[in-house]
Design a protein that fits this description.
The protein is an alpha+beta fold. It has 3 domains: 65 residues, conserved putative lor/sdh protein from methanococcus maripaludis s2 fold; 86 residues, Elongation Factor Tu (Ef-tu), domain 3; 126 residues, RNA polymerase II/Efflux pump adaptor protein, barrel-sandwich hybrid domain (OB fold (Dihydrolipoamide Acetyltransferase, E2P)). Strands 1, 3, 18, 19, 20, 21 and 22 form a 7-stranded antiparallel β-sheet that branches. β14 and β15 form a beta hairpin. α3 packs antiparallel against α4. The longest helix has 29 residues. The protein is rod-shaped and about 155 Å long. It starts with 5 loop residues before the first helix and ends in a 5-residue tail after the last strand.
């Protein structure tokens, strides 16, 4: 029968080191040495880490500096004619004939559209007959009045009837003239909307005529840019089809601002180039006052994902620097933040 103490057996399993007197002496000496500080201590060392990477001996650097820069802003607009007439009918009549086509040159007073005027001619004949009768009656009554054979009231009535007949006849003549629609100016026909046989109603647009020698660019300019241009100033304009640059003149600035877009309409008179048309797209270019700005070559900027960096040269090393860029002209790019005036950067970063 095993009569050993079970607790002692358990301890021996957890700590199988022999429980001898020499063992305890060794542990006591080691502890005493640790407390007394005997032995050599290793002091912590210092390591110098240089920032960036070594710049090549032949690396080309430039000094960053500010310069005066004038921003050139563009405002989109539309070509329109200062002399444009929207021609409408004043009558309810059938269109008898249209004598022009879109794009055709016309002169002031030229017949453009003829409306059916048969009813108007009949009304004019009736009005002129009444006028003749009223005029004859007025002469007769006037003669009797001179002979004291007619009263003042009869003479007044005869005069009034004659005047009324004259007005009716004149109105019939004017209405008859409305059947002939003529050009109000020299120019080109645009936006033809009617053909022979159509029914023209009062106020219905039939066609438009514009003067190609009085074209202008109409633009909605932000209110903050309005003070940069004045009436009579020369303005830079570009148009398309074909694309080219023109020199215009500020002809009108609308004083009222649009409450939604915060813009004011500006009208730029354009030179007579012969091939401009209303509705064409154009741009007005406005130069802002010169302001200090920093530009560097585009080759000095490199990207890592969405971030932009340059390498600052200092003490023979190239240090990476995060920057924020702005506008570019292809060869140079603006630095908005990240660099200071006087710092040197590498023209071509070391990768």
């Amino acid at each position: 029968m095993n009569t050993q103490n079970p607790i002692r057996n358990f301890q021996s399993l957890e700590n199988p080191v022999p429980q001898t007197s020499n063992h305890w002496k060794i542990l006591t000496i080691a502890a005493a040495l640790a407390v007394s500080g005997c032995g050599n201590k290793v002091q912590p060392g210092q390591t110098t880490v240089e920032r960036g990477i070594a710049a090549p001996a032949n690396a080309v650097t430039i000094v960053v500096k500010d310069e005066l820069f004038s921003e050139r802003l563009d405002v989109m607009g539309t070509v329109a004619s200062a002399a444009r007439a929207q021609i409408s009918s004043k009558l309810n009549a059938v269109v008898e004939a249209v004598f022009v086509t879109a794009g055709q040159a016309v002169t002031n007073g030229q017949l453009l559209v003829q409306l059916d005027d048969r009813d108007l001619r009949t009304q004019l004949v009736a009005a002129e007959s009444q006028l003749l009768q009223a005029a004859t009656e007025r002469k007769r009554v006037a003669k009797l009045f001179d002979q004291q054979a007619a009263t003042e009231q009869m003479k007044t009535a005869a005069d009034a009837a004659a005047n009324t007949a004259f007005a009716q006849a004149e109105h019939a003549r004017v209405a008859l003239s409305w059947a002939e629609i003529r050009s109000p100016l020299n120019g080109l026909v645009n936006d033809k909307q009617v053909d022979a046989g159509n029914l023209a109603n009062p106020g219905q647009p039939l066609l438009a005529v514009y003067d190609p020698k009085q074209l202008r660019l109409e633009v909605a300019v932000p209110a903050r840019l309005i003070p940069l241009l004045k009436l009579g100033d020369e303005a830079d304009v570009t148009v398309e089809n074909p694309a080219r640059e023109l020199k215009g003149c500020v002809e009108e600035i609308v004083s009222e601002a649009d409450p939604v877009s915060r813009t004011q309409k500006m009208k730029i008179r354009l030179p007579d180039s012969g091939d401009l048309r209303p509705g064409q797209f154009g741009r007005l270019w406005i130069n802002t006052p010169p302001q200090p700005a920093m530009f560097i070559p585009t080759s000095a900027v490199y990207r890592a994902g969405q971030l932009e960096f340059v390498q600052v040269a200092k003490d023979g090393r190239a240090e990476r620097r995060l920057v924020k860029t702005g506008r570019t002209d292809g060869t140079r790019i603006q630095i908005l933040s990240g660099l200071q005036t006087g710092e040197q950067i590498l023209m071509k970063p070391v990768m």
